[in-house]
Prior knowledge:
Elements: E1 4-9, H1 11-16, E2 17-27, H2 31-38, E3 42-43, E4 48-52, E5 55-59, E6 62-63, E7 80-83, H3 86-99, E8 102-111, E9 114-124, H4 127-152
Antiparallel strand pairs: 1-8, 2-7, 2-9, 3-6, 4-5, 5-7, 8-9
Amino acid sequence: MDDIKLIDSNKKAYHDYFIEETYEAGIVLVGSEVKSVRGNHISLRDSFVIFKGGQALLVNCHIAPYEKGSYFNTEARRTRTLLLNKCEIDKLRGKVETKGYTVVPTKAYFKGGRLKIEIGLAKGKENRDKRRDIADRDAKRDMDRIIKQYNRR
């Protein structure tokens, strides 16, 4: 069984979008970026996926330069290639182009020593949907608190 170590989670994606499907993708990195990610210096916030030339590209993902690196360090917010199957890329591209979906990264984790990015096919939420989610979360928290107090008696 593969050992999974979560590096970063994009909570803002779950707040701003309805995530309908998720896919696991590899990512192309250079050596100093891998060392920086192993030190938890990655942020998926405000990043998104675009499709160009038959490839999926991760845009605006921040990987801090490796502090012990020299001139080999790369730009922190450069565009990186995601590794997906051709059929997955075609399916995601079709949804994004026709139905108003977007693709956002939701998690970054190491699986079997390799960095994986979980990307989600997402549809935007409106403000009323966000308020409803917050109200539901608060109601669930209150109910759990009441149940816990009742079980203590």
